[in-house]
Amino acid sequence: MKTKRLFLAALLLLMVPACAPAQTTPRTGIRVVAVETFLADIAQNVAGDRLEVDSLMPAGMDPHAFSPAPQDVIKISQSDVLIINGAGLESWLEATLQNAGGQHTVVEAARAIEFRQPSEGNPASDEPGGDPHFWFNPLLVMRYTENIRDGLIAADPAGREVYSQNAEKYIGQLKELDQWIEAEVAQISPARRLLVTDHETFGYFAERYGFTISGVIVPSYNTGAAPSAQQLAGLVEQIRASASPAIFLEAGSSPQLADQLSSQTGVVVITDLYTHSITAADGPAPTYLAMMRYNVSRIVAALK
Ligand SMILES: [Zn+2]
User: Do residues 195 and 216 make contact, with C-beta atoms less than 8 angstroms apart?
Assistant: First the structure.
């Protein structure tokens, strides 16, 4: 069926008169859905104006807590290409794909990226699998970009050149982002590069830019679990012993625990990072690149 559609698209291409202006790229008819908002943005950069990439999740959705509604299952079943983060972030996916039926190419953005290993100052949860938050290191998002490029080419071979050029351009922007982050972070003295976060979100960021994860409210790669009283008491000790200046939370997450920690330790609580979703177009983090710049600015302002 997919072959037939591509064949039709190829026929339509042949029927476009030679004098047609170059900018009217014919629509391919291929429906691309990316699960997370930041992935949809990255994929749209690769797709350019050849394909429209739809996001399954709305802005502000926590992918860890996502449970697909019937209309989401329909959207998945109607997609030709489904782009996922992979690496265990979408725990609901397997069952949903079975329900959804239909034929789609599943593109795993994190394909073949190795999980980080726990190190001193950057612990890892003892959960099975590994840390799926690769997108906090723009160098790893280069791999996302290449995997998405290859997935789009597989689904639409005629677009190879467009996707390759767009991916190369976006990888250049990721390189710039990485250099910008390095320069920003240089304003924080190494001794103050300490992050306390709500779950284990910043491991790859810490690894790349020389931060220590000095505490995690929920010691998990997931949101949802609540820390025990004993874990909280331990965290208060950790924050005091490390003299961590701030706790960083995702916008919209419950600040109760952080407030409690703050009143016990005196740390500042930053409650408006965007870590698992970009914002709407009029928000402060409407693209992946903007999201990273915004978060880094907040972190640098709190720690420098
Ligand atoms: Zn997470």
Answer: no
**Does residue 285 belong to any structural domain of this protein?**
yes
Q: Is residue 84 within 8 Å of 90, Cβ to Cβ?
A: yes
Judge whether 183 lies within some domain.
no
Domain containing residue 210:
188-303
Neighbouring residues of the ion ligand 1, judged by CB less than 5 Å:
201
pTM: 0.89
Q: State in Å: Cα 268 to ligand 1 middle.
A: 21
Q: Is residue 22 part of a domain?
A: yes
Question: Could you tell me if 128 and 257 lie in one domain?
Answer: no
Domain of 100: which CATH number? 3.40.50.1980
Ligand 1 centroid – CA 28 distance (Å)? 34
Q: How many Å lie between the centroid of ligand 1 and the Cα of residue 204?
A: 12
pLDDT tens for the chain, 304 residues long, are 444 444 444 444 444 334 433 344 456 789 999 999 999 999 999 999 999 999 999 999 999 989 999 999 999 999 999 999 999 999 999 999 988 887 889 999 999 999 999 888 887 777 778 999 999 999 999 999 999 999 999 999 999 999 999 999 999 999 999 999 999 999 999 999 999 998 899 999 999 999 999 999 888 888 877 888 888 899 899 999 999 999 999 888 777 877 888 898 889 999 899 999 999 999 999 999 999 999 999 999 999 9
Helix, strand or coil for residue 276?
coil
Ligand 1 mean position to 137 CA, how many Å?
Answer: 14
CA of 132 to the centre of ligand 1 (A): 8
Domain match, 73 and 12 both: yes
Question: What is the signed CA dihedral for 36, 270, 115, 96, rounded to 10 degrees?
Answer: -30
For residue 75, report the distance from its CA to the centre of ligand 1, in Å: 24
8 A C-beta contact, residue 149 and residue 46: yes
